[in-house]
Design a protein that fits this description.
This is Matrin-type domain-containing protein. One of its GO terms (molecular function) is zinc ion binding. There is one protein chain. With about 325 residues, the chain is α+β, with helices and mostly antiparallel strands. It has helices at about 15-35, 65-70, 75-90, and strands at about 45, 50-55, 60, 115-120, 125-135, 145-150, 165-170, 175-180, 185, 195-200, 205-210. Strands 4, 5, 9, 10 and 11 form a 5-stranded antiparallel β-sheet that branches. Strand 7 and strand 8 (about 175-180) form a beta hairpin. It starts with 16 loop residues before the first helix and ends in a 113-residue tail after the last strand.
């Protein structure tokens, strides 16, 4: 008979203590395989024989399932607790930072308070200021309104803009309200920056002055415009100047004679002349007399003009130059 004594006919028989231990280890192995990653276990090691060792408990295991069942056992868990206690004792005690615990009050908000903002300007100091008047008629008796400045990078409602900052006012049980003001340095001297809480009228007043912007450094004057005729447009209201009167001694309607060019101006270039001849200078025709015309039968002796002596005859053997 292959069954244990004391069991009912047809059943598998009562499990012995050995069979229960085997079944328990198998269940622990399957559970460990689902929850534990052996690649991250610092005590898991495979030796050169192909078996597995536990470096913490110095035990030898035939397969991975046997090692995982061992990690869930009492021996392995006890050694883990001993090692953690020894490391905590050997490590130096580090001072813990003293964290200040702030208890946040949870109250029911009743809405936003009424407010009034007044813009002011000081003509003597050239400073601009703002006057805030916040009304809290239902404020709690022992509490007082509070205020603070907040950078544009602290809030998450509007896009970041470094040109502006926010001024917040808070009082229980009202909601927190904020005002968007320029991100200019604030003058926090005593007579200009002050806050006041009036418990009778339930009004909180705050006044602030902005520091004036530093004056711009003395910039060099712009370079003068070039003195070019026609560079500046003529105003439409001015009429064109009348033409100059004709010079004395000319009949009316005759074109005036060209006068000398103004000082410092460049005379225009002479017009081109065809056939390679030179143009006359601007001062008028030359004073040298032209040569006499040469006719068909006219002869003249070279060198007789301009009272010059006659040229000697050419030497013999060379033909003379005929003019």
């Amino acid at each position: 008979m292959d069954r244990e004594w004391g069991s009912k006919p047809g059943s598998g028989g009562a499990a012995s203590a050995q069979n229960e231990a085997i079944d328990r280890r198998e269940r622990l192995r399957r559970l460990a395989l689902e929850t534990i990653d052996l690649a991250k276990d610092p005590y898991f090691m495979r030796n050169h024989l192909g078996s597995y060792e536990c470096k913490l408990c110095l035990t030898l295991h035939n397969n991975e399932g046997n090692y995982l069942a061992h990690t869930q056992g009492k021996r392995h868990q006890t050694n883990l607790a001993k090692r953690a206690a020894r490391e905590a004792k050997d490590s130096p005690a580090q001072p813990q930072p003293n964290k200040r615990k702030v208890n946040i009050r949870k109250t029911v908000k009743i809405g936003r308070p009424g407010y009034r903002v007044t813009k002011q300007f000081d003509p003597e100091t050239k400073q601009r200021s703002l006057l805030f008047q916040i009304e809290y008629p239902e404020i709690e008796d022992p509490s007082k309104p509070r205020h603070r400045f907040m950078s544009s990078y602290e809030q998450r409602i509007q896009p970041f803009d470094k040109r502006y900052q926010f001024l917040l006012f808070a009082a229980e049980p009202y909601e927190i309200i904020a005002f968007k003001v320029p991100s200019t340095e604030i003058d926090k001297s005593t007579p200009k920056f002050f806050s006041h809480w009036d418990p009778d009228s339930k009004m909180f007043t705050l006044q602030l002055y902005f520091k004036p912007k530093p004056a711009e450094a003395n910039k060099p004057p712009p370079p003068p415009a070039a003195n070019v005729a026609g560079a500046l447009p003529r105003p439409p209201s001015q009429a064109p100047p009348p033409p100059p009167p004709p010079p004395q001694g000319l009949p009316p309607g005759a074109p005036p004679r060209p006068g000398p060019p103004p000082m410092g101006s460049i005379p225009p270039p002479p017009p081109p002349v065809s056939n390679g001849s030179r143009a006359a200078p601007p001062g008028g025709p030359p004073s040298v007399l032209p040569p006499p015309p040469i006719g068909a039968g006219a002869n003249f002796t070279p060198g007789m003009q301009m009272n010059r002596p006659p040229m000697p005859p050419p030497p013999h053997g060379f033909p003379g130059h005929q003019m």
